[in-house]
Amino acid sequence: MNTGSDTVKALAVGRVVIGITALLFPTFAARLFLLKVKSNPQLPYVMRLFAAREIAVGALSLTAPESARTQMVGLGMAVDGSDAIAGFAAARSGAVSKPVGVVLTGAALGAVAAGASTFVGRR
Q: Which burial class, exposed, middle or buried, applies to 123 when counting CB atoms under 10 A from its CB (0-12, 13-18, 19+)?
């Protein structure tokens, strides 16, 4: 059993599922992220932009040849790292509450950690 490969696949499938959910049900997805939809009518549009990114990274990770999967994990970690910075910045500026910022940042850092775990034990 190749747990690194299993983790890569799980991360990729998770991205595709999150992306499809955000694309088809952007208001629901925004609420899952604890975002206030009523006070921001542009949020469904932004969630669909997020959806396209998640679907693209996830689908490419699933279909990439084995030799390119390391790069795809690195790309996913960069995207998730950027999301962590965005969550922290949003909480710091007051765009989201501190508890919501912790959830957003924590989820993104968890994804970075999951990606990093695929490199453990590799040579």
A: exposed
Q: CB of 54 within 8 A of CB of 26? A: no
- 8's tokens: 């890569």
Q: What are phi and psi of 46, to 5 degrees?
A: -65, -35
Cβ 88 vs Cβ 105: under 8 Å: yes
pLDDT tens, position by position, 37-67: 999 999 999 999 999 999 999 999 999 998 8
Of 51, 50, 60, 57, the C-alpha closest to 19 is: 51
* Distance separating alpha carbons of residues 10 and 62, to the nearest angstrom: 9
Q: Which of 1, 4, 120, 8 lies closest to 62 in space, CA to CA?
A: 8
Beta-carbon contacts of 8 under 8 Å, excluding residues fewer than 6 positions away, are 61, 69, 72, 73, 118
Query: 122 pLDDT exceeds 70?
Result: no
The domain locations on the chain are 3-115
Query: DSSP class of residue 64?
Result: S
